[in-house]
Amino acid sequence: MTDSKYFTTTKKGEIFELKAELNSDKKEKKKEAVKKVIASMTVGKDVSALFPDVVNCMQTDNLELKKLVYLYLMNYAKSQPDMAIMAVNTFVKDCEDPNPLIRALAVRTMGCIRVDKITEYLCEPLRKCLKDEDPYVRKTAAVCVAKLHDINAQLVEDQGFLDTLKDLISDSNPMVVANAVAALSEIAESHPSSNLLDLNPQSINKLLTALNECTEWGQIFILDCLANYMPKDDREAQSICERVTPRLSHANSAVVLSAVKVLMKFMEMLSKDLDYYGTLLKKLAPPLVTLLSAEPELQYVALRNINLIVQKRPEILKHEMKVFFVKYNDPIYVKLEKLDIMIRLASQANIAQVLAELKEYATEVDVDFVRKAVRAIGRCAIKVEQSAERCVSTLLDLIQTKVNYVVQEAIVVIKDIFRKYPNKYESVIATLCENLDSLDEPEARAAMIWIVGEYAERIDNADELLESFLEGFHDESTQVQLQLLTAIVKLFLKKPTETQELVQQVLSLATQDSDNPDLRDRGYIYWRLLSTDPVAAKEVVLAEKPLISEETDLIEPTLLDELICYIGTLASVYHKPPSAFVEGGRGVVHKSLPPRTASSESTESPEAAPTGAPSAEQPDVIPPQGDLLGDLLNLDLGPPVSGPPLATSSVQMGAVDLLGGGLDSLMGDESEGVWLPAMKAKGLEISGTFTRQVGSISMDLQLTNKALQVMTDFAIQFNRNSFGLAPAAPLQVHAPLSPNQTVEISLPLNTVGSVMKMEPLNNLQVAVKNNIDVFYFSTLYPLHILFVEDGKMDRQMFLATWKDIANENEAQFQIRDCPLNAEAVSSKLQSSNIFTVARRNVEGQDMLYQSLKLTNGIWVLAELRIQPGNPSLTDLELSLKCRAPEVSQHVHQAYETILKN
Amino acid sequence: MSDFGFRVIQEYFLNYCPEFELFSPQKMIHSLFLINCSGDIFLEKHWKSVVSQSVCDYFFEAQEKAADVENVPPVISTPHHYLISVYREKLFFVSVIQTEVPPLFVIEFLHRVADTFQDYFGECSEAAIKDNVVIVYELLEEMLDNGFPLATESNILKELIKPPTILRSVVNSITGSSNVGDTLPTGQLSNIPWRRAGVKYTNNEAYFDVVEEIDAIIDKSGSTVFAEIQGVIDACIKLSGMPDLSLSFMNPRLLDDVSFHPCIRFKRWESERVLSFIPPDGNFRLISYRVSSQNLVAIPVYVKHSISFKENSSCGRFDITIGPKQNMGKTIEGITVTVHMPKVVLNMNLTPTQGSYTFDPVTKVLTWDVGKITPQKLPSLKGLVNLQSGAPKPEENPSLNIQFKIQQLAISGLKVNRLDMYGEKYKPFKGVKYVTKAGKFQVRT
């Protein structure tokens, strides 16, 4: 006989019959009846009408029957609160039962019944159970506090249960500790401010001890709790890591991933020079790989997390590429994730293997997967320059297959490859053009049109090709329409004679026949540009494009850091912070990685330990929120600068010529040089200097009125310049400047202005306006105002970068007559944000290895040779390496200036 | 399936209508639904409040989109809940959760539930679950309390709730006793929660199975793209009292990436490379390990293949031969080759020199049951492939999935040295068995 008999019903009306059986005198019959009721419940049938009858069966010494009734109660108590009260007496009695199993069962069930009237009666039994002699009862009671808190938080606080719960963290039984931690974490989550889990080294020690002894589930709770702790220094972080590492070998993957979270977080505090840091990195790889041999669902979650880990610390898995190779019978969700990670791990060392795999995948059956594989080939080309050629030829092979979606994906990525490597692979354009007719997806059509427009001068029939698209202009998607408009304008600018008709046609289609405001606006802009100033139009439309970055879909670093704190959670699966999707978002605390402590590196400058270090290392990603906010505020507060538009180049060049002679002397001495003599500016004399203090650049100006009339309405504007320097606030001269009066103004600058390469590089053209006229002058700024505070590279990175930069980018300089020793040099330079990464003594000479970073993210590495103790040799030798060699001579200038000041 | 608008209203009602349930955050698993392959919800269990079955519609929607049951994403978000599911033995275990929880925690737990059913009923099937629905309910209640896993060790559960046996149900119905244990399980709170106390056997035995599976991808030309060994040591321990065991290996260095059962003393392993443990009673997985260093992973078979489709013709040729490679002198047996043929294949007309083959024209799966390899005459399967006429020649090349088995061999070379028992006086019977199998073993063509 099996339980399936409980599902059979008679015609008479099931409920009616069950009622009779529940009220039977025979114990066996009662039990069978309750089982039938439970069976109905399991399939979602509503048997709440039987509530009083089932509750009547509760008082029994048969444990199985009692459990079944409790099961029923938990399901239906909420819908029958008045009836539920009938059960209270039995609960209270059961909490006193000599059998700990029954005591625990009673307190546990009571906690699950979410009826206010019952909770009142729960307090006393719960208090007893929290102090029960039996640990099984205590651990059950601990969870019950969390349940009760969920129903009535105030009650729990008033009754002092929270304190009792905190005491349980010191319980002798590890399971009790684990459950207390779990309960406290849950309560703390709903009350982020309550500071329930004030973790200190003592309690952490208790948790770590319990970690070794409690069940796997308890381990997860404890590890998640540990992850919220902030060790006071790197030594404590290391000792916690050491005690957590054995968990990496646990059979339960959730334990493993929670341990990984703790380690990833605390690693942040360890110095990379530490041997232990390297050991830890090595220990992290095997457990992560092992997660991939588990069930596919576990693999999926693991892969989503590995994706984060690989972005944060690529070195952990860089040798494990092969485990991410896709098997044809992996579920699709696993395949796509694996592919993503393969690209992240792709490097020059393994690119051949990766490409061979990707090519294999591109012939698979699953369309989504094939598309992603084709895109991946394009991403490889962009990421690993050496492989670009191989990638392009692979893509061409794939285009030859003529499989429609493969061709379209390939064209989309080839467009990106053209962007990244201009004028290199244009020979393939002919092949691409052959496939024009088969493109039916907007993205592919837009990509193809972009290619035709961009290389119009090399495609003989570019006008015909574009014209063919124009026929169905109104049926195209916006993306294609915009691209087509731009492409035809490009074509016109390149071959104006033959394509006048075409451009007129597209402009009228875009401006007159379209409802889309974006399209119309762009159309009008082009129209006006073309009709008023074709030369300017050419500069705008055919302007040199900024390079596209290597990694296209990296997670923004501050978000990445936050997500690392949430490894193993839903947030890590969705790659969104919990606040973004958790229901109600009630009081979610933003977590952040601990800052690296600077105990072992004495050379580190005090202000060079920013919390969001990674965000500063990658200049091309979105700036942290604070900055954005700052900008917005600036925009709101400052009245618009009412300066005149900058004059065209001829005027400015004149200014440069006029000032030409005086400029050289400006660099050498630090006194405020005269930038604009009074005779050239109708009596206004401007002199000034540039300074950098704690991260902000300012232009200290001295305005003198040497004319006979009062000057008012000052404004200042900069022309575009090499580093995007721009006034961060309007020029504020509060009172009118009377004759022979001088004001000193410190004008804050930022580096978010438009960028244009100047000659010389540090040339800055300035326009100043007052009530009399507009004046132009140009000046040179010392480059060290652009050296940022987080310009310190770590050693490995320095070595790697030094090797990486080609030798022809190295420049040698001599700094004469500088009788300083290494310490003095180092500290002097550091105050101007040139950081000493390492120091070496070779044959009596001191070698300093230094790094600095410019505001636009350009790194400059330096090797400085000093010969101490030899007064006759006071010359320093400076070697500079930089990916942008043109800055070297200006950096040398800066060295001179700093050291001799 | 109800229409979308209706479902949204229902969901809303459920969460915000005070008559039902005030929205309240719930740690961990809120509810569990068991769903069979035809989409019937045949069991639901709610740990807190009742969540309507309609929430599963989101799951069905995802299932429909995925086409193949194995491709249903394990984490699905709905307006008010998350659904985390696992697919086991043709059943979906769909859990409903409401707040931020570790998904691995949930997935591990769901697999543990399936394991427990398997353990209790001999199989994890809809029929077995329905036949034992009350025990299932009692088990689920025992395993999870307010989202906190309570007892998931088989040893402990069996003391709390006795597994069904024909004998017991007869005895119960005569004596009126129940299948619920009424004393606190002894292991529950000791430092060895995995073992019950008072175990007694007349024959004391300890068996270990070293099972290694080779995962490999072999490319067209026969070279190995990727290979690794997934090994496990499964134990069947029937020893009285509290035995303390030490298992040592001839070559423990092989094991550098290992996951342990909680019973193993990690420190002993770290310092002496010996597995020292007080075992759970019965069957359990002692360790699992991975050997990935390419030179340690021998590939026991090779496949010669030629699968070609002619352009503009409705037929193709198919020819595969299997032979032994590095088999350490052992017989390779239980060989099966499975091939997912392209969609345009209508039928296959093949002749095997050994074994038998089937081709399913609906799923396009070719299965060749080869048996064992005798090196004198290598098994082969040759013949013609019929394609849909007029369809373009298939672009993709099918991969071959190979299964095989080698008895008395651990392909990594792992060998148990000795097993010692402390803490008890009797002499147990000990045994170790080795077997190597193909795991995900694929040959690309």
Automatic annotation (TrEMBL), chain A:
Compositionally biased residues, Low complexity: 594-611
Membrane topology of this protein: Peripheral membrane protein
Domain (Beta-adaptin appendage C-terminal subdomain) ranges: 787-900
Domain Clathrin adaptor alpha/beta/gamma-adaptin appendage Ig-like subdomain: residue ranges: 668-778
Annotated region described as Disordered, given as residue ranges: 585-625
Pfam families found in the cross-reference section: Adaptin_N, Alpha_adaptinC2, B2-adapt-app_C
InterPro entries linked: AP_beta, AP_complex_bsu_1_2_4, ARM-like, ARM-type_fold, Armadillo, B-adaptin_app_sub_C, Clathrin/coatomer_adapt-like_N, Clathrin_a/b/g-adaptin_app_Ig
Gene Ontology annotations of biological process type: intracellular protein transport; vesicle-mediated transport
Family membership: Belongs to the adaptor complexes large subunit family.
Protein name as annotated: AP complex subunit beta
UniProtKB/TrEMBL annotation, chain B:
Protein name: AP-3 complex subunit mu-1
Species of origin: Orycteropus afer afer
